[in-house]
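## retry 2 of 3
previous attempt timed out at serialization; input unchanged, resubmitting
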Amino acid sequence: TIRSVVRSGTVAYCIDYSEWFGAWPMSESCRRYLNFRTKDGRIFRTKRMAMGQVQSSMVATTGTNRICDVPLPPSVSVHTCCDNIRVVGTPAEALQVIEEIIHRSKLVNATINEDTSDLAKLVAVEYDFLGERYHHDNGSMCSTDKVHQKLVTVTDALLARLDDGTADHLLLSVALGVLFFVSSTLRVCVFDH
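## retry succeeded, writing output
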């Protein structure tokens, strides 16, 4: 799993593309399906991929994965999510991989948010990725504060609906299922008692 691989590395190089969704032009044949109407009745069509649209995320992730499709030493793994890239492994081998990914990014004019002139600044031993905080110095991980706060908000909303009697059985079963999944799969403490 991504967790075991990320935890097994000693360092991670983290980069993020800038305006990645806007970098992909939308063909005229697709634009007619991606329009929206304003309150005054005007119709607009996107010229670039719209961030948040399912197909846009698929295209962005596919583009990122293609750039990251480089030979990997056994100790290195690459993880992507839309425009975010994490290269995890031993310092020397992970450095070789991130250098190649940066080179390939420049070939397709992908703009990287981070300063790549000094790659030592891109090394992280503690960072957030997909809602979890990884600590390579001690091999631990935990949920980010943002994830924990969302879980607290959902729990509080559920408890409020229980208190005022407006929660129905379907809402309760779905909410409890989500909370049990999160607490068991993500190992997040949902209730503080």
